[in-house]
Amino acid sequence: MGRGPTRRTAAGRASARTQAAPSRAAAAPSRTRSFPCPDELWGQVESFASERQLGSPAAAARLLIRTGLTVEQRVRELAAARDWQITQAWAEVEAIAAGDGSVGSWDEIEQAAERARSRARERATVQRRAAANV
Q1: What is the pLDDT of residues 57-82, one digit of tens each?
Q2: What is the C-alpha separation between 18 and 63, in angstroms, rounded?
Q3: HSE-up (13 A, CA, CB side) for residue 102
Q4: What is the rounded distance in angstroms from the CA atom of residue 80 to the CA atom of residue 86?
């Protein structure tokens, strides 16, 4: 029993830490990345980290990458949906031009087009406001 103070090596301390609390790396596999980044851009990342109280510029960079990729994915999805809607609308216009009256009158089409333009203007306004707040 009277062994005296125990000396731990660096490896022993690291092992004790990983046993005490599971790391984030265990939850989601990750590797350290390194890339060149202009000082001005990294300064913006550091400011973003401070403003959002993210703790570190690396956390801010991860957040910015994740949100940027999400935005890009949504842009692609919206573009595909827009293209589909245009195709559908054109098919209806051709059907009306061919004399198929079951799709509605020109007045209904004009009203629907105006509603769509109004929604597009609202989205553009929201996007401008969001961009101004960044």
Answers
A1: 999 999 999 999 999 999 999 999 99
A2: 25
A3: 3
A4: 10
